[in-house]
Protein 1
Amino acid sequence: MCFKKVILLLSILPFALCQDISDPSPFPRPLIIEYAEINGARLGDCLSVEVQLKCTSWRVAVEANNLSPWARIPEDCADYVKEYMVGKGYELDLQRVSNESENYARSASLSGDGKDAWIFDIDETLLSNLPYYEEHGYGLEIFDSTKFDQWVEMGTAPAVESSLKLYNAVLSLGIKAFLLTGRSERHRNITVHNLLKSGFQDWNKLILRSTEDHGKTATKYKSEKRDELIKDGYRLLGNSGDQWSDLLGSSTANRAFKVPNPMYYIP
Ligand SMILES: *[C@@H]1O[C@H](CO)[C@@H](O)[C@H](O)[C@H]1NC(C)=O
Ligand SMILES: *[C@@H]1O[C@H](CO)[C@@H](O)[C@H](O)[C@H]1NC(C)=O
């Protein structure tokens, strides 16, 4: 009972404090600073309830693929997306999809003939480009492939920790991991290096875009690559990706798991 009350208090606290910041007789400063630390947000980052609701509605539409295509996040939602990404929201959503994926993998009936497979996308699925997007408005800026390539070539993208946990669970079940990425073949070495450094190993195959794949939509390119895996006799149990173009098309897996990403859209 007592526990419930604490939760309730915490959940209304942000709104209460946000509204009181503009109050002529605000809370003593230390209390506000304490809240800012708890929530991981800077002082003054408080968003109005209306903006919170509007941008949550926008994000749900994005995650459900009801709102596509789109080129950049709405200007009004810049602070909202930032708070979601660096606060607890993104992390919780990542954990939830990872947990559900793992539950499914553990419950699936496996043949054990080495042909059970799971597909993983790389960017924003296994590796996080959040350090890059922190410098580029969390999706507010139009995508710049030259700058992004420079970031990729540093090979320092950290693991999405919840995905690393799922990845290792999938492998431990004897399921083969196929990494299917929109990254170019010319980034093979740096991508391998980055994956290993971030803790990923023992994938069955890393598939990148070759020259003949350039110009295709991700949906088409990835479908063709999955078609080939099916032709090779693999059974695609699961597919994890942050874009719907990772998950839709032909030769879809038994279960698709949409990893959250409100920062960009790839057709
Ligand atoms: C995911 O699973 C872990 C470990 O079982 C648990 O600690 C965590 O709370 C779960 N997260 C969510 C969001 O379900
Ligand atoms: C990639 O690595 C392989 C093996 O380490 C090496 O033979 C090859 O030259 C490298 N390719 C590039 C483009 O750096």
Note: The mean pLDDT is 88.
Protein 2
Amino acid sequence: MIPLSEPTFGGNEAVYLEQCLVGGYVSSVGPFVDSFERQFAAWVGSHHAVACASGTAALHVALQIAGAAPGRLVAVSDFTFIASVNAVHYTGADLLLVDSEPRTWNMNTELLRDRVVRRAARGHRLPDLVEIVHVLGHPADIEPLLELRERFGIRIIEDAAESLGASWHDGRLAGTVGDLACFSFNGNKIITTGSGGMITTNDATYAARAKHLTTQAKVPASSYLHDEVGYNYRLSNLSAALGIAQLEQLADRIGRKRQIALRYAEQLEGLPLTLPPHATWANPTYWLYSVLLDEAAPENVVARLSSAKVEARRVWRPVHLQPPYATAERLLGSVAEAIHARGLSLPSSSHLTAEQQRRVSAELGSALAVQN
Ligand SMILES: *Cc1c(COP(=O)(O)O)cnc(C)c1O
């Protein structure tokens, strides 16, 4: 079976893990967490980074720090992995789901901006925050959100879980323009710590508060004084050791993902499908290479590929079609539905070989020929 997306271990993972074992630092104490945070911040170009137990935990805390709470309204992408909205739900804030735009599949930020301006003119409720998800390795069109922040003080949280290393053409990386940004190191992401996440921010106060909340809100140098309700969201030293080894390979991973994308673009030419988004102003990483099928039902193609020992997967069902969020307020949703109806993700592990990739493309060609 050629898997959809598997972790790649090709560097100092075993060396650093062994150092944890030998030193006895496997849990909440040890040198790797600080070091991972510093190196990560430097890599993405952010002043501060705070390691977390998962991407979801990172989002929960970042949202809370930015003011998400009962009575507040958070605008979020409708087309995303469920964790993006679950994290909002944990804070007790209300949701405003915003449809995708066809160019990048990301949140239609122009639609949101226009609606907010109109609502403001009428004195209607505005979002307090926007959580923008950079989906599948492609950065979102952020400019309209910068305008909203400027005019209405709407804070920006970036969910960059899938887009570590993706950038805009001016060189800024996804995860460096929001008030706070979150990353994930789950096993299927471009680098992994087993499970883990990171919050980045340029604001020292936010960073200190993120560290405080993720470590049970214990007042430093106190004997068990906790000044608010915190969380056990810290990353273990073991995971951080893995993270440092993975970070050393990140540039190479991104190069491989882009190479895979180039090869797919060549091999899939002429098939009845649309290649993944690539806006002129963006440098995507193609974290999970995903196409839109012209005619064929993705469900059937997934099944055919599976019997040919190739793992493919449909893209997310929009949040507004998920039972817990069916009644959430939303702006449109038909683009997200169309992407779900036609989208298909193909094997994209960074160690995918050229030979394997030829097989995937050939099997997809046969599957689509049968379909049509
Ligand atoms: C993976 C992911 C998350 C959650 O990360 P975990 O580390 O699995 O908790 C959040 N948002 C998006 C868009 C993701 O893909």
Note: The chain has a mean pLDDT of 97.
Protein 3
Amino acid sequence: MNQLVVIFLVLFVPTAYSAEGAWCYHDRTCDVTTWPTNYSSFCNGSRQSPINIVSATTIGNVNLTAFTFSRYKDNTTLKTITNNGRTVLVELDSGVQISGGGLSEVYDSLQFHLHWGNGTSAPGSEHTVDDRRYPMEMHIVNTKTIYNRSLTNVSTADGTGIAALSFLIEALPVNGTGSPAAWTALTTYLDNITENVVNITHRISLDDLLNGVDRTKYYRYLGSLTTPNCTEAVVWTVFKDTIKVSQDLINLFSTRLHLDQSSTSELMINNYRKTQASNGRNVTTQVTVSSASEMCFSLGLMAWMLLMLPW
Ligand SMILES: *[C@@H]1O[C@H](CO)[C@@H](O)[C@H](O)[C@H]1NC(C)=O
Ligand SMILES: *[C@@H]1O[C@H](CO)[C@@H](O)[C@H](O)[C@H]1NC(C)=O
Ligand SMILES: *[C@@H]1O[C@H](CO)[C@@H](O)[C@H](O)[C@H]1NC(C)=O
Ligand SMILES: *[C@@H]1O[C@H](CO)[C@@H](O)[C@H](O)[C@H]1NC(C)=O
Ligand SMILES: *[C@@H]1O[C@H](CO)[C@@H](O)[C@H](O)[C@H]1NC(C)=O
Ligand SMILES: *[C@@H]1O[C@H](CO)[C@@H](O)[C@H](O)[C@H]1NC(C)=O
Ligand SMILES: *[C@@H]1O[C@H](CO)[C@@H](O)[C@H](O)[C@H]1NC(C)=O
Ligand SMILES: *[C@@H]1O[C@H](CO)[C@@H](O)[C@H](O)[C@H]1NC(C)=O
Ligand SMILES: *[C@@H]1O[C@H](CO)[C@@H](O)[C@H](O)[C@H]1NC(C)=O
Ligand SMILES: *[C@@H]1O[C@H](CO)[C@@H](O)[C@H](O)[C@H]1NC(C)=O
Ligand SMILES: *[C@@H]1O[C@H](CO)[C@@H](O)[C@H](O)[C@H]1NC(C)=O
Ligand SMILES: *[C@@H]1O[C@H](CO)[C@@H](O)[C@H](O)[C@H]1NC(C)=O
Ligand SMILES: [Zn+2]
């Protein structure tokens, strides 16, 4: 790296981050408890995220069909990875898109990032399901194509301007083996990213990272961004299946990433927001038509067999 680049990074990076605001997870003067007052335009609202999903009270909705994923198979779409002081964020190439899945139109997939706890000692997903918190959560952030791939372009009056896909991450029972190769490759970058943006050179696709998830089974509700300014413009999809990654890879997030470029600064841990009041919002899911009709069919068959028995 030449001197000019060093000077550029030193001058540019702090400016870029202060412009984003000074909210945080780790310090009492800026942590999650301060957001409703410091970002009161939305963070104190009534359709905030994340929430606890109570599976028994979800409502069936026939509109929650399969998604269409564009370029999710393509292993050249992960462009850069960065530690922005609050999460690890991967920028996606243009043309990565989603549609279907009960969404009203096509959305561009802009980036994904992660939330975690403190390795083996504390889980850190944002959404909980039946009060269970998972070790990590991956969010793929999508915006309607009319917003030109820009989160800040999303109109705060558009309640579904952003579509967030949430994948809960669970630990495999054994360390070392069984993790998808894509996760092993992705986590090799964690040692190399401080605040500067690093190009991803490994061939990793989104499909590879979403290994093992049946993407036709999900929960849907209307909420917000889980970070300031908590814009209430998000249609959430939380997939029921988890991505399974070994504990040693999960632990890399809470042991390799620091809050700033100095490796002596605090570790980046527990970067999740606590669950918010549902305020009467419904969580919907697929209608289980097939299993209900199968049940009727087997009961009918059983009745018929009973009748046919030569008592
Ligand atoms: C948040 O608000 C508190 C007081 O409510 C204030 O002390 C603190 O400096 C504010 N933090 C930011 C990042 O604005
Ligand atoms: C959130 O804060 C704003 C500004 O202080 C206020 O106008 C609004 O009523 C508050 N909303 C809720 C739900 O408390
Ligand atoms: C499904 O979508 C149709 C057409 O947009 C709408 O009229 C209907 O209310 C939706 N059904 C549910 C259960 O949301
Ligand atoms: C995180 O976990 C490590 C290792 O278990 C522990 O030493 C540390 O105190 C924990 N940090 C917090 C903030 O809980
Ligand atoms: C998106 O880009 C087009 C063409 O550059 C422009 O006309 C339009 O105003 C932009 N939309 C927004 C929301 O910025
Ligand atoms: C925060 O809210 C303002 C409106 O108050 C909006 O213009 C801005 O784009 C929002 N920022 C993000 C990141 O959503
Ligand atoms: C939309 O985003 C583009 C690219 O970031 C930007 O140039 C443009 O000014 C934004 N438009 C609005 C209306 O914010
Ligand atoms: C991380 O940096 C080390 C040392 O510079 C290098 O050997 C390694 O290949 C880098 N890893 C990635 C994934 O770029
Ligand atoms: C990263 O990729 C961009 C665009 O492909 C390129 O211009 C830049 O030189 C690359 N940076 C490094 C450090 O390889
Ligand atoms: C990347 O995708 C191309 C085209 O499908 C394929 O030939 C190649 O084997 C893939 N690379 C890796 C490392 O998966
Ligand atoms: C996996 O390795 C981590 C340390 O990286 C350790 O804390 C954990 O107990 C191990 N889990 C299993 C199932 O061996
Ligand atoms: C939740 O679902 C129930 C039953 O379908 C319906 O009566 C109620 O209006 C819904 N509430 C909201 C906030 O959509
Ligand atoms: Zn997130």
Note: The chain has one domain: 21-306.
